[in-house]
Amino acid sequence: MRKISQKQQLDAKYPLPKYTLQSLREKLYLEWTYNSNAIEGNTLTINETKVVLEGITVGGKTMREHLEVINHREAITYVEDIVQKAEPFSEWQIKNLHRLVLKGIEDEYAGVYRIQQVFISGAVHIPPDPLRIQEQMDQLMHWYHGAAQAFHPIVSGAMLHAIFVGIHPFIDGNGRTSRLLLNLELMKSGYPPIIIKVDNRLAYYNALDKAHTTEDTQDFIALVAAEVELSLDLYLSAVSNFTP
């Protein structure tokens, strides 16, 4: 598989030059924040997202849109912290990530499983009744610590995202949280984060809905794998002439 050989090539370049790595991370984290929020309807452009992260207020935009940017960057920092400390994956981490995503926006629902039925706009799949959320989250954690450990991290990351967002355990912020969980799984295995682009939103939604309604996750896994290749290509192009 090409993506495995790319990963091996990148691993052979470690440790990467300090400032090259820093600039790559800043680029990907900005694009991750912009695209993940844009998928959910945030109207800030990528340049406006950048200045918000620099502490500047953008006129004509809502406080919620500003907070979504700031919160997402804090959530990425939390993901990095989990990876650095090699903390085992837990339901507590999921709730903490969600708490960061909704901080100051909907504090009442931040990190708290929903007690109302919700629907996913444009999707055939209907999330479970609130009374079944804890049961399904328990099943997700059992799957992750059991069967998922035999999977390639690209597969386990994609499936973790798909299963989680199918449960839709929170009132709001499920999409952003699911993409954070996907990248958490990839980064724990030494992959750079990937960007699900707002321009690819239709294919992304269709692949997820297919996974939820038919239990066929191949399209979604393929979509994630393609984005992994793009992120690896970016890193490799930046260090192509570097010898550790």
TrEMBL record:
Coiled-coil stretches: none
SUPFAM superfamilies, sorted: Fic-like
Domain Fido: 89-226
Chain ranges passing through the membrane: none
UniProt-recorded name of the protein: Fic family protein
Source organism per UniProt: Paenibacillus yanchengensis
Lineage of the species this protein comes from: Bacteria, Bacillati, Bacillota, Bacilli, Bacillales
